[in-house]
Specification:
The protein is an alpha+beta fold and about 150 residues long. The protein contains 6 helices and 4 strands, in the order βααβααββαα.
């Protein structure tokens, strides 16, 4: 990790840098301005390795087989995907105006490679329990075990 401290800076210099680095649009600038209005201004830039998210191979594998398993069960892709999310990551019952709805505690968009592998494993196990064979992923590239 590399950290740079740039200090001092004028208010306008900080705002210009934020627009450039964070691609903050004008609709958010009022909030940013409020937060730094009376601060002793400086900028800290941290360059760090980004945590790898799930792989494209994992996504392709999962969506292919969640669709096929959904057809087997008489469910749409989206219905089966929601079911797998609830089984893999847990769920909560939320009272809405239409009654109680079951919602997953985590979305797949928030999953890193290891957590996405858990979702894939849940799909494979659940399908097997119902007599539908989902083939094992071809290896670490599909499962992303190096998380």
């Amino acid at each position: 990790m590399i950290t740079y401290h740039i200090h001092p800076m004028s208010h306008d210099e900080v705002m210009d840098l934020l627009r450039l680095l964070a691609k903050i649009d004008d609709s958010k600038m009022d909030e940013v301005t409020y937060l730094i209005k009376n601060a002793d201004l400086g900028v800290k830039v941290v360059v760090d390795k980004i945590k790898r998210q799930r792989t494209r191979q994992q996504e392709n594998y999962y969506h292919k087989w969640v669709t096929e398993f959904g057809k087997f069960c008489g469910m749409t892709h989206d219905e089966m995907h929601e079911e797998m999310l609830c089984r893999a990551y847990g769920s909560e019952d939320v009272n809405t105006r239409l009654g109680y709805k079951r919602r997953p505690l985590k979305r797949s968009s928030q999953a890193n490679r290891a957590k996405y592998a858990e979702l894939i494993d849940t799909l494979i196990i659940t399908a097997a329990e119902l007599g539908f064979a989902v083939p094992e992923p071809k290896g670490e590239e599909d499962e992303g075990q190096d998380g």
